[in-house]
Every structure is written in structure tokens, then in C-alpha cells.
Amino acid sequence: MAAPNASPGKGRPPGVRGGGGWRASLGLTVPSFCWEFLRRNPDYRADYRRKAEVGHRLDRRWGLSAPADPELGADEAGVVWRADVAPGLVVPLERASFGRPRALPASLREPVEGEDGRHIRLPSGLQVQLRGEASPAGPLLVVLAYDADFNLRVRAVDALRRASLTPAPPKSRLSLAQRERLARCLFALDGSLSGRSHRQIAGDLFGEEAVQDAAFATSSVRDVTARLVRRGRALMAGGYLQLLRAGF
């Protein structure tokens, strides 16, 4: 069986092989990583199909503000998350009765109509949520709930401020080692979902020489591969929400 694609974020559906191996996912933002894990979830894919066929409301447990096609990567699908599940990513804005209008950072897409307002998704993955009669033309008022996630909300507002000054994406809170682990988890998950054995997945991740030894069954490489598969499945099953909460 062909090895799975490590980075279907370019528009390919999960399970279709692409170049670059697990390293092809290293450039994903945190919210895009979260979407990549969610769109592989068979329950989400079934829920999305039911909505398309009979028009039922998408289950709120997925954390999405609007349905997103699991056959597409985050950019193509226009994925937008609810403000309550991604306080470090979504900046809620309301119409202000005072102040001078200020242009929002440029977006590559039109606003997405969601269950909690219209969302503008910036290239970095940051979202602006327009509540009620709020207009991108402004003037706008930032809404910050003073709750347990206040620091995350402030961080998202600061990211919006910086996005209005420079097109450079905000620095990720994840280290290179953490991003590499997420990329390996995603790749291992693809292998597991396509029916590849741990030995085959280990060969794809670490090279065939790492699995040639007859002692693979008791090797550290096998243990690492098994942990990556388990972590990938846990992220797909809902663990991505914890990753998403803190934003970038």
C-alpha cells in the first residue's frame, strides 16, 4: 500500500501521497495543524456529509464556527474556529459608537458566515470575529472577557495589532522540536489510518535502515513510532482542541 500524504494542506484529501514526507508539514501554523488532525476524524467526515446531504447542524464538539470541507486544507476550506474554543486565536469585535475607523489587516478571503458572527481569517491563521452589526470598515471595539483565558485573549489582540503593522506572521509559541513532533504525529496517523504497520511507518519516518534489525520488535524506534501513532489518534479524537486553545 502506498504511503500516505504527510501534508494534505495543499488541497489534497487525507490519505493521498504527496512529496516531502513528514517534513512537508513543518510549515503549518498551529490552527492549520489542528484542522489537519480534525479533518482526518471519520466521525467529523461523516457529520459533514450528513450536513451536506440533509442540512443538519454540524456538531458543536468540533469547535468550528462554520462547516469546513474535510477534503480541503485549511486555506482552501476557509476554516474558522469559534471564539470560545480558541481564545488565543480569535479576536471578537463589535461596532463602536466612537473612535476613528481603522482598517483591518488584509485577508485573502471574504468573511465567512459562522454561528457566532462573521469571521475574517488572516493568512497567519489569526481570526477576527465581527459580531452583530460590526463592519470591517469600522469603527470597531475589541471585546475582551476577563476570565481564565484573559491572557490568551490579550495575546490574540496583540497579534492583531502586529498584523496591522507588518505582514510577517506572529512567532509560533511552539519550538521547532514541538512542530517536528506534531508533523511526525500527523504522518504516523496517516500511516495508521491507511493500514500500514508500525514497522512500515517507522521506515517512512526514520529510514529503512532503522527497521532492518531483527530486534525491531523490542527496539526504541518501535516504541517511538507507537507513541507517535497513539498521540496522532488522540489529537484527531479531540486533543487538537487543547492545542488550538492557546492559538499560535
Distance between the termini: 35 Å
**Oligomeric state as shown:** single chain
Supply the helix-strand structural class: alpha+beta
Strand order in space, largest sheet:
2-3-4-1-5
Largest β-sheet summary: 5 strands, mixed
Low-confidence stretches: 1-13
- Tally of extended strands? 5
Please tell me the overall pLDDT: 86
| Count, helices | 7
How much beta, percentage-wise? 5-15%
The percent range for helix content is 25-40%
The domain tally reads 2
Could you explain the architecture of this structure?
With 248 residues, this protein is α+β, with helices and mostly antiparallel strands. It has helices spanning 30-38, 42-54, 74-77, 150-163, 176-193, 198-206, 220-245; strands at 90-95, 112-114, 117-121, 127-130, 140-142. The chain folds into two domains: 1-79 and 172-248, no CATH class; 81-170, no CATH class. The protein is built from seven helices and five strands; from the N terminus they run αααβββββαααα.
